[in-house]
Amino acid sequence: MKAEIDAARQCLFCRIRDGEIPAEIIYREDGVLAFRDIDLQAPVHVLIIPEKHIASLAEAGEPDDELLGRICRTAALIARRESIEQSGYRLVVNNGPDAGQAVDHLHFHLLGGRSLGWPPG
Ligand code: 5GP
Ligand code: ZN
Does residue 119 lie within any of the structural domains? Predict the structure, then answer.
């Protein structure tokens, strides 16, 4: 438990949540927070996170089911607000080293506004 608390204290996205690091926050409701990625990979690139610290998707448990559902629905809402609902968009979770997860706080990338290649490199 103590290790978890220490991880959360140092966590970049927990610090954004707490206003200690600036970010362009575009949504905050019901334990879900969304802000623009600092290094845009598409015209719309938003990170959607649970406000509570969960290190990765692998760390999410059954009690988080509702929260995970809310995050997905928030992605769809933001896509509508960002006017990419019709053109299309992608929701991505990088989990672990092979996926290139760089920040150990669960986050969903919402990407859109351009044609996205598949499969990812
Ligand atoms: P990952 O590779 O872990 O799936 O994605 C982490 C994302 O966080 C990257 O797209 C990266 O650009 C973004 N990021 C890293 N540091 C910051 C920051 O300080 N502010 C914001 N807004 N995004 C960040
Ligand atoms: Zn965190």
Answer: no
**What pLDDT does 6 receive?**
72
Owner of token pair 């996170």: 49
Q: How far is the CA of 10 from the centre of ligand 1 (A)?
A: 15
| Full DSSP string of 74-108 | HHHHHHHHTT-TTT-EEEE---SGGGT--SSS--E
Q: Into how many domains does the chain fold?
A: 1
Most ligand 1 atoms within 8 A of CB, residue of 92, 103, 110 to mutate = 103
Which structural domain, as residue segments, surrounds residue 29?
Answer: 2-112
Q: Which ligand is nearest to the CA of 46?
A: 1
Residue 107 annotated as catalytic = yes
**Residues 84-114: tens digit of each pLDDT:** 999 999 999 999 999 999 999 999 999 999 9
The first and second tokens of residue 88, run together, are 């299309």
pTM (predicted TM-score):
0.96
CATH, residue 85? 3.30.428.10
Q: Is residue 28 part of a domain?
A: yes
Identified catalytic residue from 45, 53, 107, 109:
107
